[in-house]
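Entry 12.
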Amino acid sequence: MSTLHPAITITDLAKSSAWPAIKKERVVTVAIDGKNTRVELATCPSPVGGDLLYLLCRKCHHRRRELFVVDGELACKKCHGLPLHPDHQLSSGRFSQKVVRKVWQVRRLEARLAKPGPDKNTRRRLRRRRRRLLDKLKQELARQRHEARDDLSLLLGQVGIQEL
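Predicted 3D structure (tokens):
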């Protein structure tokens, strides 16, 4: 993959002066590497009334809030294989989705505890939940380390290396 170009987002389009025409036509034309590319917009009913507008990915045809240009091709993050979340690098390789989910849960709990709102009992309950999540996280990491060690010894045995 070459460099990642700035994303085309619904928010940026809504700020443009051409937004009323884009909304009406449900189509936007974007210049990518000197070529004009047509991107369709899809609507979805909003829970508070009205419609939400989304960009349609040109590859998978799913509704997206932003599209990316990689190697001159316009598509969503998933189609380009880009990280979907800032912590996505944790979920690749040696960490499972279980570990990443627990990390996110702990971060959310810590954010709630940092706010001055909850009463004493709620704070106690949140601290207890955080402690339990951290214990489960330690167990999962230990299990994965053990599995990785077994996989490594099996692999080294197949190659003919007994120990490191």
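Annotation: The chain has a mean pLDDT of 79. The radius of gyration is 23 Å.
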